[in-house]
Amino acid sequence: MRKVRKEFTIKALFWIILLIANLRTSVSAFGAQVICNRITGLTAGQRRICAAAPDAMAAVGHGIRMAKQECQIQFNSHRWNCTGPTKGNPFGHLQITASREAAYMYAVISAGVTYSLMDACSRGNISICGCDTHYSGVLDVGPTASSWKWGGCSVDLNFGMGFARKFLDAQESDASDPRSLMNLHNNKAGRKIVKQLLNTDCKCHGVSGSCTMKTCWHSLPHFRHVGKALMKKYWKARGVSATPTMPRPQSFTTNGRSKRPHGKRSSRRLKLKLRLARSTSINQEEPRITELVYLEQSPNYCDRDYGTGSLGTHGRLCNRTSEGTDGCDLLCCGRGYNTHQFVRSKQCRCTFYWCCYVKCDTCVERIEEYTCK
Fold this sequence. Notes:
- The chain is an alpha+beta fold.
- The chain has 2 domains: 44-132 and 152-198 and 220-246 and 270-312, no CATH class; 315-373, Endo-n-acetylneuraminidase fold.
- It has helices spanning 2-38, 44-52, 57-74, 100-122, 157-169, 178-196, 223-235, 328-331; strands spanning 138-140, 147-150, 199-205, 213-219, 238-245, 252-254, 257-259, 271-276, 293-294, 304-305, 310-311, 317-318, 337-353, 357-372.
- It has a 4-stranded mixed beta sheet with strand order 1-2-4-3, with no helix packed on it. Strands 8-5-9 form a 3-stranded mixed beta sheet. Strands 12-14-13 form a 3-stranded antiparallel beta sheet, with no helix packed on it.
- Strand 10 (304-305) and strand 11 form a beta hairpin.
């Protein structure tokens, strides 16, 4: 009797533990769903991705913020300085005309999300990813050089690129829309740039400091390198147009002859492809994967126009003596500039006395700042 009661108690305890575990999972999933539903700007597909991997969303948000900060640094001296279109809604669709500036913005955000996800995985901050295990084996680089093998903690490239693609591309619901095709292409270009810029770090192993064997792994570069690389792509961005293509109708073969099926017409969806707008070849070329593309010429960004994502240049600081994009002539669009003079005090002519103090004089300097009218 005691044995039966003991077995019953063990079984009951097991089922209680299992019930608690399932309850915790359900509550956790329910909580994630509630949190994801409260995030503004997400599409239905993005909400499902968020609920399935809520711990990855912190990395996504960090990647978007990091990308926007990098964009503002790269365009600091331009008329359009990467501000304004999505203020207060970091996950929303970017309200900016389909120009080369939009191409950069989408590419750098895609790169930022990919970068942040990979970094979070390597730090163990996301439960469904970690170090990349696809790299393995020993590689011999020649008889005169040392062999090396993959090891350490390579960043999880496949997860970072895959999750970023699913989450960001989910905003583009209409694959037959030219703007969506442009955004999808630039998203992919941003992810590819991160992949191309990965570092290969190595550590030597051997007796007495020799390097008979090296262990190598992939690591992330500084994100500034990604921003600069995309800036080079921005200056070489290609104008494209969306060209409709009709897929071939389905057919079957009878007695060696190809025929179209009878009855209902075979369904043929009209598809669009991006083609270079100024291609010299007869058959227009498709843009390369790592090229940034745009559909419309950039506006001048001189005046405030929320339709194009322009805040204008009124009140922007400019350099009176510069002939570049930060110069008052270009940045202020010919409207002129205001001069502001103020006085600033600072320590100067500091002397060190033994021992042990520093004595400084107070100097007053007059400063001029120039802002666009």
